[in-house]
Records
---
Amino acid sequence: MNIKETFAVINKMQADGIISRFALGGAVAANFYLEPVDTQDVDIFVVLTPAPGQLLASLSLVHNYLEQRGFPLNREGLPVIAGWPVQLLPADANPLTKEALEQSVEHNVGGVPIRVFTAEHLAAIAFAVGRPKDKRRLDQFREEKALDESRFSQILQRHRLYDRWLASEGH
């Protein structure tokens, strides 16, 4: 599995106009800020570009593009790029992920640039989703002091999560 090649293909999709903007989220993104954790896929938050003459964007354009380049879909319907299943998620699904994309920062993986959600946005998304693995990731961000607590609090306040945060055991 070659994450550098995976990122290069995603960058090429953007250059070719298949997606307009994107940023890395999820566990792979968290690895930029935390001790590495094992994960099964790569979460890429995207803004899709509608096909010419279409009002709505579709993942079928992305899937066709990737399949033509030798990256088939797996049993779960995810494209597999350089050995990594890639989950393409809409960045505009909610205001928090939209903001995370807008404020993502550029990192470099072996000479390949990749935009990555900030640690604070990853932590806020983990808190909002609230699955056990997300709670563990949020705890890890706090234990490893990988967050700017002030910035994290501001994000929670903007997205109406702060009161829930104060009421939770996690603060």
---
Amino acid sequence: MLTLTQGHLRQLEICPRRYQYSYLEHVPVPTDPAMLERQWWGTQFHLVMQQRELGLPIDDFLREDAALDAAVNGLLAAAPELFVPQPDVFRQSEHRRTLAFNGYILTAIYDLLVLGPACGQIIDWKTYQRPPEQAQLAQEWQTRLYLYLLVETSHLRPEQVSMTYWFVAPPQAEANAEPPSRITLTYSDDQHRRTGADLQRLTDHLTTLLAPAEDLPKIDAALGYCAQCPFAVRCQRWSERFGAAYATLPAIADIAEVPL
């Protein structure tokens, strides 16, 4: 069975062809070096928080990176209650949950999961300083899938679980970094039912698309997603991404040969 994460669901909902290239064919795309650096720093932050949760030393990491040291200690100062050990509470960093659903395996990895007898809290670390609007964050597939999976794989009811995003400063913002901030999202029976229905719809749709064993359909270019898609040229949507100058290319036969 295919595994579906929040990233798979997001790409599938935006454009089935983009999902195909990204997750079924694993087509490589060029990556901005600045983005790679930010991703590396975010990975380091998550690693430090995981090691701290496991009781492993983190001083060497912090000594080597002043921005990392500021981010970690800023978070510890902003939310000391989050890191106080509590009896009868299950805590685990990088906690994985899976659920067989409509012929697929839904999967989530929680940065930190805190479970008590009557409540559950999902914690997610975001290494950028400008959080989206709370309403937008509530509609993201990460929020929806993570909360759905926790309810479906535990004894807890929807109103007993929540998800908190913590936003910490990336290294390039260190000079004028703001303190870490958080957004906490609660859950309800209605949200749980809607997410279940949307998961059923998306997985049914994917099963239908995969049946003919041919390329999955492209999104309508008028929706505007192609302008930011790394596969725009592969899909012959180069004009949407690069402008009208790239709308047409000469035929191969019309291109003059260059002697070597």
